[in-house]
Amino acid sequence: MSRSFVKKSMVTLPASGIRKFFDMANTIRGVISLGVGEPDFVTPWHIREASVYALEKGYTNYTSNCGLEELRREISNYLLRRYQVEYDYTGEIIVTVGASEAIDIALRSVLDPGDEVIIPEPCFVSYKPCTVMAGGVFKTIPTREEDYFKLKPEDLEKAITPNSKVLLMSYPNNPTGTIMTGRELEQIARIAKEHDLLVITDEIYSELTYTGNHVSIASIPGMKERTILINGFSKSYAMTGWRIGYVAAPEEIAVAMLKIHQYTIMCAPVMGQMAAVEALKNGMEAVNKMTEQYDQRRNLIVNGLRRIGLPCFEPKGAFYAFPSIKETGLSSREFCENLLYEEKVAVVPGDAFGRCGEGYIRCSYAASVEQISEALDRMERFVRQNAACLKTSGMAT
Amino acid sequence: MVEDLKVRLLHALEQNHRIATKTLALMLNVEETKIQEIINELEDVKVILGYVTLIDWEKTGHNDKVTAMIDVQVTPQRDVGFDVIAARISRFPEVKSVYLMSGGYDLSVMVEGTSLKQVAFFVSEKLATLENVQSTATHFVLKKYKQNGIIFDDHKKDHRLVISP
After folding, report:
1. pLDDT above 70 covers what percent of chain A?
2. How many angstroms away from the CA of B55 is the closest CA of chain A?
3. Would you say A302 and A295 are in contact if contact means Cβ atoms under 8 Å apart?
4. Among A46, A331, B24, B28, which residue's CB has the most CB atoms within a 10 Å radius?
């Protein structure tokens, strides 16, 4: 028998829980999906056109490792204009292949073996595996519905050990849609400074904030030097498939990240970078229009879920609602599987984003008003039928 | 507040007037009865003038209509300017739209008929003979690509995966 060539830690690393559910949903026809983690809009035409022009003009080459100078300058202007954080485009900003790459190189640049990464859950599916692959150890903090799934300072303080090095968080949050206000972030910042932690903040949903402006923790005095700020174009400009993101960090860390990036990726695709320049220069109007649409669908889905008996706190960012399904007596997985087979509606079980997501489901409202309405009707039927079953089985026992 | 709600409601209806009031109520965070009340009021004061459907007649195989855009030059009248003549042109059932334009001519008139001949006849007999109409230039529409913000053959398809993180 030949030996297994696969690295041991890759054998034990679990595959994404979402993947399994995707395989299941993919086999069924006529599914209405509220399970998609990307905008239902296509990239605004003027941005696509910029990329078409770039190709026509022959922009098919490598760019500098850290990205086109023009793009980095636009990113620097944008961060200052929107979030009042100042980054030097010549040494503190790297254009990456999506925010996903940024998360990876950030972790790999700062973790020594055994360093602890504190991650509030529920969270995006890649944070824990990326930590492990970078040689770190993750320590999760469960957050609670009664706190709107926000990171509480006292929970953070309790999670810190002498090995803690990084706090990795993302607000507006996928899957809960929760945000952190400036005041709440100040408390987190105080603890980070007190315990000398580095904060990696994934702000990919920053433009999709519906009640007031997004605040970046990097903008809090004294935080920039201990923050790696990650953002990108996927969600705000509906550019997921372009794979263009960026990371901004103090020069010392940026230098380290750039080494990994240059040896593994070389540079992000140039036509995507050209499109991103156009997005930053002229894309704000399209962003505002899309945000307005999301906001109305947000009301539709949250009010709709509450009406059919699935309690849901108000998500103030991203494009997800995270209702509780505890009263149905089903687990998240059971709920999602049964809903998929019985009513052909796809939503994602909350525990795919961490154990404390059990009892919840992620419903994406990056879908048309018609689709959301139809999905809500189907879910209502499902919840009612389930309640009837629960009642009869309750009487039997 | 109410004004803001009205505007948001109108924007939503302008895109799709078939959205159920129940859905609109959830979207805009107000009671269904309130939505109905506002819609009724907007209809009464003629802010909402009607609800029309955009149809690609080409696809039905029953496209027996001919459309022409006609540039009309008119002599404005004392005190009323272009309004009286424009209103008069608007009354013809063949006329689908009338706009006052800046530039080389005054009124842009869209006429719909069952044949080239019928439209040409309408222009020469009804439109050009009106008092104050100085000249007309008729342009027939050969193919429609986009109307009211909607592209006719958009091949719009959701390419996204059913589930993604």
Report:
1. 99
2. 19
3. no
4. B24
Sheet of A320-321: strand order equals A320-321, A361-364, A348-349
* Minimal C-alpha gap between A330 and chain B (Å): 21
**What is residue A395's predicted lDDT score, i.e. its pLDDT?**
59
* Domain covering B2-44 in this structure, CATH number: 1.10.10
- 3-state secondary structure at position B114: coil
CATH 3.30.70.920 for the B57-142 domain, yes or no: yes
Instruction: Tell me the pLDDT tens digit for each residue of A6-63.
Output: 999 999 999 888 888 888 888 899 999 999 999 999 999 999 999 999 999 999 999 9
- Hunting for tokens 């149905």 — which residue is that? A328
Residues of chain B with a CB closer than 8 angstroms to some CB in chain A: 8, 12, 16, 19-20, 23, 25-29, 158, 160-165
CATH class of A8-43+285-385: alpha beta
State the span(s) of chain B assigned CATH 1.10.10: 2-44
Domain boundaries, chain A: 8-43+285-385, 46-283
pLDDT over 90, % of chain A: 92
**Structure-token match 């999506």, residue found:** A98
Using CA atoms, how far residue A180 sits from A106, A193, A216, A233, A361, in Å, is 22, 18, 9, 21, 21
CATH topology of domain A46-283: Aspartate Aminotransferase; domain 2 (3.40.640)
Residue A15 in tokens? 């595959």
* Chain B residues touching A320 at Cβ < 8 A: none
